[in-house]
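STRUCTURE REQUEST FORM
Protein name: Peptidase M48
Source organism: Flavobacterium johnsoniae
Requested output: structure tokens
Priority: standard
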Amino acid sequence: MKKYLFLGIFAALAIACATNPITGKQNLNFVSNSELFPSSFQQYSQFISENKVITGTADAKRVETVGFKIKAAAEKYLTFLGQSQYLKDYRWEYKLVDNKEVNAWCMPGGKIVVYSGILPITQDEAGLATVMGHEVSHALANHGAQRMSAAQLQQIGGAALGAATSGKSETTQQIFAQAYGIGSEVGVMLPFSRSNESEADKIGLTLMAIAGYNPDDAIAFWSRMSAKSGGASTPEFMSTHPSDATRIANIKALIPEAKATALKVGIIK
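Status: completed
Returned output:
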């Protein structure tokens, strides 16, 4: 039974690896967009119905303007990569929501929400493009589906460990289970999330450059975000996000590549 369980895990891993069109990487993905998007759109509709959407203001117009430019940039970039059909099932929307939280997100399928609480930090279109480009990049890179798949795999691994230690004492089983839980979280799940964030930063810089914004302005935005947090943060190895210093250093290193890609796509900044 144990042998068949482990063989099943390896078979599932082999089947679930797919190449993402925008990154070119093979990623773990048990969830297709055809399965994910309907649920995503439903959750988005429910959120919009339960929260105050700001319309008719200069800020709301700015969110729509930047959102449309990032959408157009994504379409141009994927066409450049020979993947123009990748966005055919996207249903783009850009909403400003009255919420003091410093946050923004993009659901799988292109539903974007910006909270009003982040606007004092974005300050202008370039700041908004940094945020919205980053959040759209999570969707384009299928990070939501990957996280869901990784969580499923973590559960499968826990079940496999349980089967492998079933003949051990209860105390030994508990020790192994606790070690697995900590090890898989700190050693796999958190680094996985941090790599997603760094990947979204890279793609987001490219999108904002293609959209006509200067990616150098992303440094100013993330510096303001760091100042907002007062420099206090969870230790990087225990966090789902890179530290502020790591993120800013990475962004500085990625900016030349983003500008070069934008030039290739046909936008000169």
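Reviewer notes: The first strand starts at residue 17 and ends at 19. Residues 2-265 form a domain with the Collagenase (Catalytic Domain) fold (CATH 3.40.390).
Form closed.
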